[in-house]
């Protein structure tokens, strides 16, 4: 767990300071709270003066896929409302489809690349020169993803499908598109990238 303090100094300027990296054995709320309390005590800081806090939940969401599938299966089998059962069954089929996994990984990759630009555009005191540099850098990363990132994306999707025993779509197989009948799956997916 990394801890960063954000505070306002006497000149009313927001400051951020990296405090420490702490190894945590668990990611439960009670364990994280105890770790934060101990770290604050080490630096003689009081939680009573904290006005707000934020947590990055991305690491906790990392392995939620099997849990989501399990909940949907439970609702599909045991819910009393037929509409809920039907909706859960549809979501279960969709969540376990190759298209869902592919688009989820594609969006994750794009959002990681564009995150820095997004944060930079939200700064109130951003100057235009830095914004232009950030836009150029982000465009360069996106172009690089388009030209050279396909294999890694494809590999990540296949690894995810293997890990959770999902049906994989072979990119070399023919994709039946009524408008372009000879197009392959790889051409179709790369066009969306």
From TrEMBL:
The signal peptide here is none
Give UniProt keywords alphabetically. Answer: Membrane, Transmembrane, Transmembrane helix
Question: InterPro entries under this entry?
Answer: AtLOH3-like (IPR055298), DUF4371 (IPR025398)
Membrane-spanning residues where? Answer: 100-121
Task: Report the superkingdom from the record.
Answer: Eukaryota
Q: Does the keyword Transmembrane helix apply?
A: yes
The DUF4371 domain is annotated at: 1-65
Q: Name one Pfam family in it.
A: DUF4371
- Its protein name is DUF4371 domain-containing protein
Question: What organism, scientifically named, is this protein from?
Answer: Oryza sativa subsp. indica
């Amino acid at each position: 767990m990394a801890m960063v303090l954000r505070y306002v100094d006497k000149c009313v300027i927001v400051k951020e300071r990296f405090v420490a990296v702490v190894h945590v054995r668990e990611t439960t709320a009670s364990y994280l709270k105890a770790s934060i309390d101990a770290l604050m005590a080490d630096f003689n800081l009081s939680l009573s003066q904290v006005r707000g806090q934020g947590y990055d939940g991305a690491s906790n969401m990392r392995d939620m896929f099997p849990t989501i599938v399990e909940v949907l299966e439970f609702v599909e089998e045991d819910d009393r409302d037929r509409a809920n059962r039907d909706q859960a069954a549809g979501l279960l089929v969709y969540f376990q489809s190759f298209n869902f996994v592919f688009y989820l990984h594609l969006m994750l990759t794009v959002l990681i690349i564009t995150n820095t630009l997004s944060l930079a555009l939200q700064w109130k005191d951003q100057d235009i020169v830095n914004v232009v540099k950030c836009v150029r850098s982000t465009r360069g990363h996106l172009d690089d993803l388009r030209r050279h990132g396909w294999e890694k994306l494809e590999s990540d999707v296949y690894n995810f499908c293997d890990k959770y025993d999902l049906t994989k779509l072979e990119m070399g197989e023919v994709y039946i598109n009524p408008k372009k009948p000879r197009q392959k799956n790889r051409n179709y997916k790369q066009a969306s990238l």
